[in-house]
Design a protein that fits this description.
38% helix, mainly alpha
Length: 177
Amino acid sequence: TASKADTWVTPKPGTDGALALAIARELLIYDGGTNTKYDKDFVDNWTTGMTDFGSYLDGSLDGTEKNAAWGELQSGVPAATITTIAHKLGDAFADGKRICIDAWSGPGHHTNATQGGRAICALALMLGSIDKPGTLFHPLRNSPSRLPGDSTWPAKDGWRLDGKDDVTISSDPTPVY
């Protein structure tokens, strides 16, 4: 994938999540904060917690702003490069370009994969890069409940993300063995 990249960086192992947080912060303070570059409509309609996430990024919650300088200390990627990446991503989003951010290629195999992956996925969410052509999307998978050749998504039932309705939670606390 490096050969396809506009900018290739090599963060210290296990710091991909910190790099993503710094990029997210830079998206929020793009042009000094007067012109944020993220998919506000997508975030407002399909996610929760952006206010708290923004407070975490700006340091309101723990006293440490997750800006490009912080990202450099954590990841080893120069602050100017982090800002450049954030601006390229913000501009690409504003221009309607496809953005694909993958959390599982390498970062998903580290001991901090859960938290690092969450930070990387938050960046993808901020850029509206979910379930659109050219971005990350949930591929249709074969399963026992799907007929051969059926490529339709099941309807959402409000319980499971994949729309399956075969989950029943009993009110009986007796374990079943």
